[in-house]
Write a structure and sequence with these properties.
With about 300 residues, the chain is α+β, with helices and mostly antiparallel strands. It is built from three helices and twelve strands; from the N terminus they run H-H-E-H-E-E-E-E-E-E-E-E-E-E-E.
Length: about 300
C-alpha cells in the first residue's frame, strides 16, 4: 500500500509541485514559531505604545508658583508691649492708640514638583508683614513687623485618579528671618525728622502643616489655595537703638515697643529680650505653572 501511494503521488503530481509543497511544509514547520514570536513581540510593542498614549503623564512634573498670603499672628509679648505703649500715650492726655498686631499680609513664590502624580515637593520663599502708625502732623510713631521665610514642604495628593484636580495634606519646615522696627519722627516745617529707631532682629526654625487644593484652569496653569497652621517663634532677638527713644530727664520711653514693661513709676524700656511669635493661620491663594504637563490631557 505504501508503494502504491508513492507511485500515485509520483505519477499524478508533477515534480515542481511536489518540490514547492515540500518547501512549503518545511518553511511552515520552521517559520511558524519565529512568526509567532514576532507577532507576540509586535503585540507587546503595541501594548506599550497604547499605555503611553493612554497615560502620557511624566513621572515628575515641575513648575513655578506665586501666591498672595494673609493670616493671623500670635505675637503675645509684642501686643502686651503695644498695650503698655497705649497706656503711656493715654497718660499724656491723648486718646490715639495703636492697634494690636494680630494679622498680616504677604506674598511669595518658588518651585514645585509632582512626583508620580501623588507626591508634592516644594521649596518657596514667603514675606509677611504688618505695619501700624499713630500720630499726626507734629509727631508720628510707626511700627513695622516684617519677616521672611524659606520653606520646604512634602505633600500627598488624595485624589489619585484626577490629574486636573489635587487635594491633599502637606507639612514642612522653614527658616524665619524676623525683625521689628519702631520709628519715632517729628514734623518740622512740613518735613519729618527721625528722632530715634528701635530694631529687633532674630532668626529661628519653624514648622507648618496645611491642606491644599489645586485646579487646572488651562493647559499648564493651575490655581491653588492653601490653609496652613504655622509654628514659628523668634526668641530673644537682638535689640538696638534703645537709648534713642529714652527721655534723658526721667528715662521714660517716649513710646513703648516690645521692650517695655510696667513698673511702679510707669512704663519703662526693658533691657532684656522679647519674643516675636509668628505662629498662627496662614492662608495662600495663587497660581502654579507646570512646564512639562502633556497637552491635550
Amino acid at each position: 500500500m505504501r508503494h502504491q501511494t508513492s507511485s500515485f503521488w509520483s505519477s499524478f503530481v508533477p515534480a515542481p509541485v511536489r518540490a514547492f509543497a515540500a518547501l512549503a511544509v518545511v518553511g511552515a514547520l520552521v517559520g511558524f514559531p519565529s512568526a509567532a514570536r514576532a507577532q507576540i513581540t509586535d503585540l507587546e510593542e503595541v501594548g506599550t505604545v497604547t499605555d503611553d498614549v493612554l497615560d502620557p503623564y511624566p513621572p515628575i512634573v515641575y513648575g513655578i508658583t506665586v501666591f498672595g498670603a494673609f493670616g493671623s499672628l500670635q505675637m503675645t509679648e509684642f501686643n502686651e508691649a503695644v498695650t503698655a505703649m497705649n497706656l503711656a500715650i493715654q497718660s499724656q492726655g491723648t486718646t490715639v492708640t495703636m492697634q494690636p498686631f494680630n494679622g498680616f499680609l504677604g506674598y511669595g513664590g518658588g518651585l514645585r514638583a509632582i512626583v508620580k502624580s501623588r507626591l508634592l515637593v516644594e521649596a518657596v520663599y514667603e514675606h509677611v508683614s504688618q505695619s501700624e502708625t499713630i500720630g499726626g502732623i507734629s509727631a508720628k510713631n510707626q511700627v513695622d513687623v516684617p519677616a521672611s521665610a524659606m520653606m520646604v514642604s512634602l505633600g500627598w495628593d488624595f485624589l489619585k485618579s484626577k490629574r486636573d484636580t489635587r487635594f491633599g495634606f502637606l507639612a514642612g519646615v522653614g527658616r524665619y528671618d524676623s525683625q521689628a522696627k519702631q520709628t519715632l519722627s517729628e514734623g518740622r516745617n512740613d518735613q519729618d525728622f527721625t528722632l530715634g529707631v528701635i530694631e529687633l532682629k532674630g532668626k529661628s526654625w519653624g514648622s507648618h502643616y496645611a491642606m491644599f487644593f489645586e485646579k487646572n484652569v488651562s493647559d499648564h496653569m493651575f490655581i491653588h489655595a492653601r490653609a496652613t497652621y504655622r509654628l514659628a517663634r523668634v526668641k530673644d532677638p537682638e535689640i538696638t537703638g534703645l537709648d534713642s527713644l529714652v527721655d534723658p530727664v526721667n528715662e521714660q520711653a517716649f513710646v513703648a515697643v516690645p521692650v517695655v514693661e510696667d513698673t511702679a513709676d510707669g512704663p519703662r524700656l526693658r533691657r532684656g529680650g522679647t519674643e516675636l511669635d509668628w505662629s498662627g493661620f496662614d492662608g495662600q491663594v495663587g497660581f502654579t505653572y507646570y512646564f512639562n504637563i502633556p497637552t491635550p490631557w
